[in-house]
Amino acid sequence: MNSELLVSDARHFRVDYEINPYMHTEIQPDLAAAVGEHEAIVAAHLAAGRKVRYVPSAPECPDMVFTANAAVVRGNRAVLGNPPPERKAEVQYFQEWLTWKGYEVVEVPYAFSGQGDALAFGDDLLLAAHGQRTDQRMMRVLAEELDYEVVALQTVSSRWYDLDLAVGVVGLPNTLAYCPAALDAPSLRRLHGLGAELIEVSVEEAAKFALNLVGDGTTVTMTKGAPRLAAELRERGLRVVELDTTELAKGGGGVRCTALTLDNPPGRPSL
Ligand code: ARG
Can you give the pLDDT at residue 19? Predict the structure, then answer.
């Protein structure tokens, strides 16, 4: 699970605009430190035995390090992200890379935040959010194009502009971490209805991008700012690697945002 990840780099990472509440153009990242944070994340993936693929960032794309928004991939199909105008220039680079790698790439006419708003859970479920960066009509498109059973969720504010800030797929079977205050009441009911083990995360830790983690069943790679969630995960037998993400956080992202999962298992062929 999550053994093949697409990353970019932080060489052109800047805060040129404010499209989420964590971004402030007057607070720029220290570039060398941001590059270092990103390299440490990639090194942690490799140390955990994950495969890492790489698309170089482009100078005109200051958010390209956040590859999670590029698409959501299942089997050999990739539904391409359709980001806000500020990030449109990124799309062609990811589209070219995915096509070159042999993925069947699907373009969509509606706003779509890619894996940022579409988290595979188990083999057949897709936890997908709408209302912030993703149009509600994408729920049907994702079900049709990727053959997932879509669990539609809504976060309560732009503080959770992408679902991967509010919900974390930790990698243990049937286990999710989530921030209850980040989801609306129908979404909470839907989540509880899944019958999964749910680990609750406080707003305080979630706002530090605690849930923006990569888990593969053995290792969880996450930010350093969330000791309570880290302890909960260790109690469940997981190896937890906590990394500095303070510079990347100035763009409103963390560990999960910088990695697009490429090897979600395909759907079962229908008979
Ligand atoms: N600055 C980027 C944006 O607002 C951050 C994206 C983070 N990605 C994520 N999957 N949460 O689009």
Answer: 98
Q: Are 267 and 255 in contact (CB under 8 A)?
A: no
Q: How far is the CA of 83 from the centre of ligand 1 (A)?
A: 10
Q: What is each CA distance from 84 to 63, 89, 104, 158, 206, in whole angstroms?
A: 12, 10, 23, 14, 24
Stretch 20-40: mean pLDDT: 98
User: Given this model, what pLDDT does residue 235 score?
Assistant: 98
**What does the pLDDT look like over 238-247, one tens digit per residue?**
999 999 999 9
Which pLDDT score is estimated for 139?
A: 98
Question: Quick one: average pLDDT of 148-153?
Answer: 98
Model pLDDT, residue 271: 54
Mutate to test the pocket of ligand 1, among 19, 162, 213 (most ligand atoms within 8 A of CB): 162
Q: What's the 40 CA to ligand 1 centre distance in angstroms?
A: 19
Query: Ligand 1: does its nearest atom lie under 6 Å from the Cβ of 164?
Result: yes
- Percent helix, strand and coil across the chain, each to the nearest 5: 30, 25, 45
Task: Give me ligand 1 centre to Cα 99, in Å.
Answer: 23
Please return the burial class of 102, using the count of CB atoms within 10 Å of its CB with bins 0-12, 13-18 and 19+.
exposed
Smallest CA-to-CA distance from 113 within 141, 135, 86 is with 135
Q: Which helix (H) or strand (E) holds 74?
A: strand 71-74
Q: Which ligand 1 atom sits nearest the alpha carbon of residue 115? A: 10
Which residue ranges form the domains of the chain, and what is each CATH number? 4-261 (3.75.10.10)
